[in-house]
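Quick one:
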Amino acid sequence: MDQLVERTDEVERLAAAAAGGDARALDELLVHVRPDALRICARFLPCAEDAEEACQDTLLALASGIGRFEGRSAFRTWLYRVAANRSRSTYQALRRRFEAENAVPPPDRPDPRRTSVVAGTRLDLLDGLSAIGAAHAEAVALRDVAGMPYAEVAAALGVPEGTAKSRVHEGRRRLRARLDGDG
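Output:
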């Protein structure tokens, strides 16, 4: 437990220094958080190469946006939000690429003969998140996919905790309707 606290403190220290313009701190920060970023992206994307692509996009977004990190919430909260958004963006880009290359949209449901149950479920989830609206999708992704507590979801979204809970609840309702075929 002490190592986790020390690692968290180190990440926060590096994030503050990097936000202040310290390039060396930024390099160290990206090395420290890369495994976490990849783990978050892999929760969304069933293919390791796709998760790696989203992870690289996440690290690039962190590096280019670090000057905007003000430390009002934990750096990891920001990391989770960026990784979740980049994962969803990567999925949407892959889907568009597939459609352009094949001149047909991908099937509504993954083919169970060619897709694992886990991968198919993730693809359904990503399609569902795309359909329920950005505010609800982001709240659900942070809470249910990234596993963030409501207080951190609220901090990441910049809303009161009650609003975060409401968005998660409504997002789950919409997602359930979509996945059940009612939406």
